[in-house]
Design the sequence.
């Protein structure tokens, strides 16, 4: 990956501009002047401008990931905000929301400010999600108002489910004042017990402790009920089970403030892929059955699930080389995301490309109440340039994260990001 | 032998299971001689990696190795110390670098023997991986059944007790199904995996019906921790519903073979009088364990099957 500063006049020529906000697709050039969108259309390049050839490539909004773990502060051996940013650039992402389960967790306005300040030094836009409860202990809610003032855009105890329904109700009631989303990692810890994978035929064969889909869906249902009751904004992260999809579909009819995301890996893999005991496939919530995967694909197509996220969760090789019970939950996902979801949804399941791109751009930005019209003239250029049809094999060399815990290594993907433009720079791949 | 390692009996070829059993009979003859040692594995080095406590399996393997004249090294560690310090990979690679031919491993984590094959070049034999498989136990169980009945195909075998947490059950199911036997699982519904029927077995909650149906019962140990975990209300209730009690056996007046992989909780899952009765082949299983493990080590470390060596 080669990152360079944009020239004063930068022209992207001969590409297809896919605008997911206005839902248009046309052959056009893009003129970026001083890092801002100057013009989209047929452009005669001014003198001293630099041209980027985009033949057979699509030009669209920079992708936005509502769910990453960049491990800073406290876990810099796995990832930091800068290395995470490089992984994002390699995947076409220009904005990400960083989960607060760091060490210490982001549970005060001061720590929120730290992330905002560090983010300014990074090559992409990083938005801090604050903790719902102090130290993510699930008991007392944090100073949400002050954290929002410092730049928090949502609240989550991700990694740790909020087990106490009353605490969840307090959090949703309180956050409704500010109308920003609460994101709860929904896995009932009593039902999960020592489960390390989805309960089904495969877990029986492998002899691994497992937890069924209801571990998630019962808590998702609880959260949805409380959110509707509170009139609060709820974003359901990494939906994994078909029952959760049913609940989300039903309760979305009662409130417009409910949204949901699915990860690339829950769309791509099934529990049958765990027969090799590959610890890189150990994630929470677990990769589930074919039936669940099918329901997730349908839900993301129909819009019941609003957006695609990566849940990029770096862990060191040493940790992942432990036995299956000891290895931590989580996989990285920024670099492989587009090729994976484009293959599954567009190529294998006939979703139209613009709908997929909306779920990577406009929809997650809408969930986080951010500007969604990135091609408005005068906007800061945040652009992803990709080849929609290129078939390729994902490998270690495509990883820019500090960690390499990816089960996508050696998987055939379809569609590849070629360049990412953000914060006045262009990152070119291969 | 189709596979280099013995990791489990899922998809393990039936002809290889039969070869192991046939060869085990030859070794059993040796075990009954006054001098019980043969030079078959002279010069081979085998390490016994025990990451979890074991008495009978470890002794059975060690004895099998000594009877075959192999050199053996024993390693045992609690996993808690591994969690803190050296990783699993580092530990086993250190041992591998000491030039060994085979590793026999007991480990509390399912799948760890498969992981081990990624880290070392030696032949790996699974001596029990958590709640997953215990293939050598299943082979000695099948050998004992084969010895008793003369065949395995069509036998009706009931496995009774805590199926969920049992590596013995899963390996027996795979092995017996491959060999053409019928298997019924019987135990409390909290201790039978929800998707167990997908393994091609029947499930029953009525132990009396199962006794009427079966040619042999394989009775599993009930651990007291299961009561604390809330999976069982009490020993009394378990014994009433599923115990292989003296009264129950008398009531059925049926010729039936009773097996148990040990260690036996007398008075919990099975009564003393049944353990000590003529129907029980529990001590034969122990001797067959040594013979089966000799056979497995011999065949996987380069020996020829029994019929050819005649």
Sequence:
């Amino acid at each position: 990956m080669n990152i360079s500063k944009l020239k004063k006049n930068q022209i992207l020529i001969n590409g297809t501009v896919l605008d997911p906000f206005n839902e248009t697709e046309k052959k056009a050039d893009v003129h970026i002047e001083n890092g801002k969108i100057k013009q989209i259309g047929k452009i005669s390049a001014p003198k001293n401008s630099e041209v980027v050839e985009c033949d057979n490539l699509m030009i669209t909004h920079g992708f936005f990931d509502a769910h990453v773990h960049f491990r800073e502060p406290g876990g810099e051996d796995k990832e930091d905000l800068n290395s995470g940013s490089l992984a994002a650039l390699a995947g076409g992402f220009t904005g990400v929301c960083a989960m607060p389960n760091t060490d210490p967790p982001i549970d005060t306005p001061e720590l929120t400010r730290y992330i905002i300040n560090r983010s300014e030094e990074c090559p992409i836009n990083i938005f801090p999600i604050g903790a719902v409860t102090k130290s993510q202990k699930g008991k007392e809610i944090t100073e949400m108002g002050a954290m929002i003032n410092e730049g928090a855009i949502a609240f989550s105890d991700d990694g740790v489910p909020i087990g106490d329904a009353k605490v969840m109700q307090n959090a949703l009631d309180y956050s409704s004042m500010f109308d920003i989303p609460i994101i709860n990692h929904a896995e009932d810890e009593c039902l999960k017990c020592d489960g390390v994978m989805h309960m089904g035929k495969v877990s029986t064969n492998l002899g691994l402790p497992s937890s069924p889909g209801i571990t998630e869906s019962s808590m998702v249902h609880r959260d949805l009920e409380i959110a509707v009751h509170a009139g609060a904004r709820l974003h359901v992260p990494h939906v994994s089970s078909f029952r959760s999809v049913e609940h989300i579909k039903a309760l979305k009819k009662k409130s417009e403030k409910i949204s949901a995301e699915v990860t690339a890996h829950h769309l791509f893999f099934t529990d049958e892929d765990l027969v090799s005991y590959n610890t890189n496939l150990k994630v929470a919530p677990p990769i589930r059955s074919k039936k669940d995967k099918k329901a997730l694909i349908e839900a993301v197509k129909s819009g019941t699930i609003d957006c695609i996220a990566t849940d990029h969760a770096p862990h060191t090789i040493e940790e992942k080389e432990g036995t299956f019970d000891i290895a931590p939950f989580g996989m990285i996902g920024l670099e492989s995301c587009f090729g994976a979801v484009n293959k599954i949804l567009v190529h294998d399941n006939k979703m139209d490309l613009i709908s997929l791109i909306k779920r990577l751009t406009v929809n997650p930005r809408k969930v986080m109440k951010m500007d969604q019209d990135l091609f408005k003239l005068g906007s800061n250029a945040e652009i992803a340039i990709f080849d929609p049809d290129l078939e390729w094999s994902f490998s270690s060399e495509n990883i820019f994260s500090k960690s390499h815990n990816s089960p996508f290594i050696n998987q055939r993907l379809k569609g590849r990001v070629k360049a990412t433009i953000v914060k006045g720079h262009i990152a070119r791949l291969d | 032998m189709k596979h280099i390692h013995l990791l489990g009996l899922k998809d393990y070829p039936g002809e290889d299971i039969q070869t192991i059993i046939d060869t085990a009979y030859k070794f059993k003859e040796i075990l009954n001689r006054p001098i019980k040692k043969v030079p078959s594995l002279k010069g081979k080095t085998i390490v016994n990696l025990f990451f979890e406590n074991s008495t009978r399996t470890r002794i059975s393997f060690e004895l099998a190795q000594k009877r075959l004249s192999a050199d053996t090294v024993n390693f045992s560690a609690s996993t808690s110390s591994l969690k803190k310090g050296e990783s699993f990979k580092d530990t086993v690679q250190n041992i591998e670098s000491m030039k060994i031919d085979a590793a026999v491993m007991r480990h509390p984590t399912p799948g760890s023997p498969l992981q081990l094959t990624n880290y070392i070049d030696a032949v790996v034999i699974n001596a029990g991986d958590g709640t997953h498989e215990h293939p050598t136990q299943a082979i000695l169980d099948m050998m004992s059944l084969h010895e008793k009945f003369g065949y395995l195909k069509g036998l009706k075998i009931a496995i009774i007790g805590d199926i969920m947490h049992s590596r013995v059950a899963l390996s027996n199911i795979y092995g017996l199904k491959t060999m053409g036997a019928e298997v019924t699982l019987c135990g409390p519904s909290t201790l039978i995996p929800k998707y167990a029927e997908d393994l091609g077995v029947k499930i029953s909650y009525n132990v009396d019906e199962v006794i009427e149906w079966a040619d042999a019962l394989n009775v599993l140990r009930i651990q007291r921790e299961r009561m604390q975990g809330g999976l069982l209300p009490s020993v009394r209730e378990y014994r009433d519903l599923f115990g292989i009690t003296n009264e129950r056996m008398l009531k059925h007046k049926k010729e039936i073979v009773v097996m148990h992989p040990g260690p036996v909780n007398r008075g919990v899952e099975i009564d003393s009088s049944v353990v000590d009765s003529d129907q029980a082949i529990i001590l034969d299983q122990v001797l067959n364990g040594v013979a089966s493990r000799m056979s497995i080590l011999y065949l996987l470390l380069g020996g020829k099957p029994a019929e050819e060596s005649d």
Chain B has two domains: 14-134+286-305, 135-285. The first strand of chain B starts at residue 45 and ends at 50. The first helix of chain B runs from residue 14 to 31.
